[in-house]
């Protein structure tokens, strides 16, 4: 009996060991399954989030100026061919010498800059020949420029494309912000002076020729835009246009 019992207990222990091993394998397999399912879930969420982020980026590019410039100081508001002005945008304006109007917030630094530029302009105050524009005025400028190129022999589509390099469509011009001015000097030296000194007063040479691929606008030596002294200084020192500067913020 003792011998048989011992044999029985031996076989029983072997079966127990096998069951323990089998249960251990099942337990490990269960853990692996849970890990795999968790990884798939996390990957799926990350992929979905990434896709949603991509769609959000596209939406931002298509958004209007108010949405695009959330948290941006007013003087760094970006208006170009991709970013338009809301229809209800209504700046507070003040007249400058010559009758043109600008946003009242840039009047002080603008006049200081023009006064300082007199020495390079035969001691005459450079004139602001274009400041704030309404949508209707902007449209008339664009139409006139388009008609000019049609008269020169270009097709209508070609004329509009060329005109767009010089005159923005209504809603896409900085002039409608009231922060930009076109300056007329008695001598070309005044433009050289402005390019080297305007940053001291918070203005930038907005459309240099070497940035046309970025701004989408051909060189305009007369066009200056207020962005504040700090931003203007950094752009001047680093050779950046407004689009480049804002992309680094």
Helix content: 40-55%
> Segments where pLDDT lies below 50 for 5+ residues?
1-68
- One letter per element, helices H and strands E, the order comes to HHEEHEHHEHEHEHH
| Overall number of domains | 2
Class from helix and strand fractions:
alpha+beta
- Globally, the shape reads globular
Radius of gyration: 34 Å
Give the distance, in angstroms, between the N- and C-terminal Cα atoms: 89 Å
Report the portion of residues in β strands: 5-15%
The strands making up the biggest β-sheet line up spatially as: 3-4-6-5
Could you please say which CATH topology of the largest domain applies here? Muramoyl-pentapeptide Carboxypeptidase, domain 2
Overall pLDDT level:
81
- Just give the CATH class of the largest domain: Alpha Beta
Instruction: Give the CATH architecture of the largest domain.
Output: 2-Layer Sandwich
Number of strands: 6
**Number of H- or I-type helical stretches:** 9
Largest sheet: 4 strands, antiparallel
